[in-house]
Amino acid sequence: MRIGMLTSGGDAPGLNAVIRGAVLTGTTVHGHEFVGFKDGWKGLVEDDILPLSRHEVKGISKQGGTILGTSRTNPFEGRGGVDRINEVMADNRLDALIAIGGEGTLAAAKRLTDAGVSIVGVPKTVDNDLDATDYTFGFDTAVGIATEAMDRLRTTGDAHNRCMVAEVMGRHVGWIALHSGMAAGAHAILIPEQRTSLEQLCEWVLSAYDRGRAPLVVVAEGFTLDSMDDPHSERGLDAFGRPRLGGIGEQIAPLIEERTGIETRATTLGHIQRGGTPSAFDRVLATRLGMASIRAVNERLWGQMVALRGTEIVHVPFQEALGKLKTVPQDRYDEAALLFG
Predict the structure, then answer these.
(1) Can you tell me the distance from the alpha carbon of 186 to that of 220, in angstroms, rounded to the nearest whole number?
(2) Tens digit of pLDDT for each residue in 281-304?
(3) How confident is the model at residue 226 (pLDDT cuts 50, 70, 90)?
(4) Cα torsion for 321, 181, 338, 193, to the nearest 10°?
(5) What is the DSSP string of 297-328?
């Protein structure tokens, strides 16, 4: 078989490991040929390809980013659409496509599959918010990076007796904030699933401060105070019409300082969480998912994605992955909240 691959949406540590796992398994075990489309759906629409052989994927599993490039292009806009994608696949003699991406990518892949395009998906999101898989690669690395950054913030906070606010990724869910905040010993963790009042937040901050601690507050980018209508966004919309979030840390830091009198500083970690070397866990998970995507192609499981359930790799329909977000359960947040203040 001749298989196309693309990575779409935000980058995540482990993308290259998926590519390597798929190409090595496909070429050495099954005799498949591979081509990669540059910059996600954009490369597929524009027929911008590069060869993918053992040579191109050697040693890439430890590299962050993606050798194929990525973008947030919508494949149905501009020159795109089902007819154009079928044309490009036919011109390149492709039997199947492996699409690696998050919710937006998989939604586009489902729409194309429903129209007859042969696609298998691989889930990717550092937010870990896809409901059909227990973990996604990139999440473990992002948590590790965020935890290290918070450890550093705590030392400078201790030196100046300041409250430090660390803003991490998390558009709709607070998994990164929850895990990194617990690991770093945060005195408050603010996530999109839990609307919190400024009064409660300041109570946690003052409790820590009165015990001689420099308070650490972790906030996910999609968090809203109970007095806010929508998450903070001042950067417009992405290609899929979603607000580009960010800046909530800078919004709440002066409120904390005004209310408590404690000098407060905010730091937004942003894309640092998505860059650099993937963790060992993410390398292994991504490699396994890449290998499993080839099995799915061989079995012609179009319209399905590979996923992690427990320690096993399974196949689930796109619809199951897109049905709802995997949010932080109340009991997990309550568990963390026992340590606040």
Answers:
(1) 13
(2) 999 999 999 999 999 999 999 999
(3) confident
(4) -40
(5) HHTT-TTEEEEEETTEEEEEEHHHHHS-B-PP
Distance of CA 206 to the CA centre of its chain: 33
* Share of residues in the chain with pLDDT > 90 (%): 86
**Residues 73-104: pLDDT tens digits?**
999 999 999 999 999 999 999 999 999 999 88
Q: Would you say the C-alpha torsion 87, 20, 55, 12 has a positive or negative sign?
A: positive
Using CA atoms, how far apart are residues 168 and 223, in angstroms rounded to an integer? 10
Sequence-distant (6+) residues with CB within 8 A of 187 are 204, 205, 207, 208, 213, 215, 216, 217, 340, 341
CB 167 within 8 A of CB 192: no
State the Cα–Cα distance between residues 136 and 115, nearest whole angstrom.
27
pLDDT over 60 (residue 167): yes
Catalytic residue among 39, 127, 140, 282: 127
Catalytic status, residue 39: no
